[in-house]
Input
Amino acid sequence: MTVTETVVRTCPLCEATCGLEIQVTDGEVTRIRGDRDDVFSKGFICPKGTTLGHFHSDPDRLRTPMLKVEGEHVPVSWEEAYAYISDNLRPAAEHSAAYLGNPVVHSIDAGLFSRTVLTALGTRTVFSASTVDQRPREIASGLIYGMSVTIPVPDVDRTDVLFMLGANPYVSNGSLATAPDWPGRIDALKARGGTFIVADPVETRTAQEADVHLAVRPVSDALLLAAMATEIVARGHARPDPADEDTLMAVVDALTPFTAESVAEQVGVSAHDIEDVVDRLGASPSPCVYGRLGTTVTPFGTTASWLIDIVNALLGALDTPGGAMFSRPVSGSKNTRGQDPVGSAQSLGRRSTAVSGMPIELGEHPVSALAEEIEAGNVTALVTIAGNPVLSCPDSDRLDEALEKLDVMVSVDCYINETTRHADVILPSPSHVQKSHYDLAFANLSVRNVANYSPPVLPLDDDGLAEWEVLARMAAVLGGGTADRAGAEFVESLVYGQIADAAAASPHAPEGLTREVVDEAVNHAPGPDRILDVMLRSGPHGDWFGLGDGISLDSLIAEPHGIDFGPLEPRIPGLLSTPSGRPEFAHPDLMADIPRLAAALGDERSGKLQLVNRRTLRSNNSWMHNVNVLVKGRNRCTVQMNPADAGGLGLDDGSMAEVTSDAGAIRLPVEVSEAIRVGVVSIPHGWGHDRPGTKMRIARDNAGANVNVLTPSWSVDPLSGTSQLTGIDVTIRPV
Output
């Protein structure tokens, strides 16, 4: 007899956190559509969200551990895999490193338990996708507000003028601003009489919807923002919080060289256009400035992130409804503990990498330094968790070759991809529909305070392990224990260690809170669900384990469509942890970068084309290219060029071209488009599935070219160590 049921869960594929309605028939996912009752997404869904069933049933997805034997990966038992790790990785721990990929933050299992592996490995050499993404924003927030998780997000549902730089949420679904249905939210902004302004070298899908599109030159955002700050004051639009006025005016005084006139040539738009944007923002009662990847993966990523906050603060748009506000995650975080807003001063430059002296910030090495650290013998053993740096990180060919020099490599991943093909052992993690889900990271970035919990849709595969257990057992082995079922005591110690941390998260815990009270009240599901229950109970809306009124994990289980805790509310000074008890807008490490930015005013242009990255709606991470419904149709891995540039080089739409930078060269088809600025070319990321040894058949049939062959490892933002992925000088010739 056919058995069909419908369940709901949150999509884990990007930051939008859309609710899904999943139909399961006889244990197979048969249909996915948007959950119209979800309190946040209200039925919105993108093409990626419909593919969780395809991924689950993909025959290329690993379901058993793999061991490399004579150059080929063969299936082995969990016991054999962990025995290899114990015999080979543990002795090499002294020169070990770890790489954490982007999917780690999309998984409560990996997010909570990957750190246990790092602790057991004993390494301080940690790399992650952060330094090819958002690290400048985290650094700027840490210096200004005292915590890297204190990141302002646009209150898009209440703003009336939104100025967006380097972001394309109509395609990416938003980033560092968790909000389902960006198109609907922008439509609502315009319907209530608001104005939408976009700065981007490309007339992206988002820019096409803008009331004003500034086709700026790549890597010019910090210059534009610096000029906007001085023009806000000069044109009489400044209305900062009186408590911060003196500090902000000190910043503006230091930015004197930057005016609409002085930056116009470098930014690539007229002074009048810059002044017009400033006037529109200044005349608005609820303006907001928001920047994303195009502002962070540049040599001035941290400074641009800082200047976004300076502009918002000068406009009186920081921590006010309709401006740039701060989420209050229901699960709690470092800035929801009600601490005194006075903390220790943060600073940069305390540690640097061994080979080239790149900055090590927030406990992580820049991923640009991974290849050189391996080449120098400083890293001889590597653990990767849910990442594919050979495709996602700079100077890819060099990194690919460096991985071959490792003595031992262990990966936790679903596929044998361009990176894990180098691994001696690959430990598989379950598919998305086999794991519970709660967005711990993105709750800190949500444009509305909501909470959604999703239990697993399908059971684990035969002999499969939960992702948290895969990681906990690796940590047990690295710590000298065992990985069999007898290692459960070690797993329990990890759980209770995190429970203790979460239970102590607030100095305002009620009287009578004891370990016995916690143990009796807490949900006793294994692993991360139990930890999540503690985080929810001790968070800003928690029930404190039955000692107060509030929520628990059971509350979310009872509300599968989520619970809405309302719009964002002002949180300064309570969320701060700074020496002054106010935002440190004039932090010396940030002010010290102004002369370097001023020097860029005199930079002469190379005359070469400038490469910018792009994302497509059907692609997020590289593994998605092994899902046929996401890659079928026209080839989306092309180099987009303006007709004037293409014609001058003798290139036509569809013809093959070779693109060359100082780092390498790739070949791919040309796509001629009026949407891209003259002098700029665009290539999507995540492609290049043509390396031998991979086991992703659909991706190989749609290989494309790897744009990160062109991105140099030596060009980084000196404050954060983040790689430059945009504004790369390239030359193009017909093939």
User: Anything to note?
Assistant: The mean pLDDT is 94. The two ends are 59 Å apart (CA to CA). The longest strand covers residues 665-672.
